[in-house]
Amino acid sequence: MAKISFMPKQEQTIPIDHPDKETALALGYEVMKNAGWTIQFAGIDKIQAHTPRNWKTYGQQIVFGLEGDQLMISSELVNGEAFDMGGKNKKNISQFIAAFAGLKNSTSTTTIETNKAAIDVLRAVTVQTVTETEQKVAEVNAAMNLKGDNLNVTYTLIGINVLIFILMAANGAGIFDANGLVHIAWGSNYAPLTLSGDWWRLITCTFLHFGIIHLAMNMYCLYMVGSYLEPMLGKPKFIAAYLCTGVFASLVSLWWHKEAVNSAGASGAVFGMFGLFLALLTTNLIPKQVRQSLLQSIGIFIAFNLFYGMKGGVDNSAHIGGLVSGFIIGYLYVYGIKKEKQGQKTPWIIAVLILITVGVAYGYLQQNSVSDTERREITNAVKTESYKDNSKFQTQLKSFDEFHSQARDYFSDTSLTDQDFKTKIAEVSLPAWKNAEEAIAATKAYDISPESHAKADKLLEYIGLRKEELEILKQMLAEGSTEDLLQKLETVRTKADAVYGEAIAL
Question: Per the CB 3.0–4.6 Å rule, which of 53, 94, 309, 413 could disulfide with 314?
Answer without folding.
Answer: 309
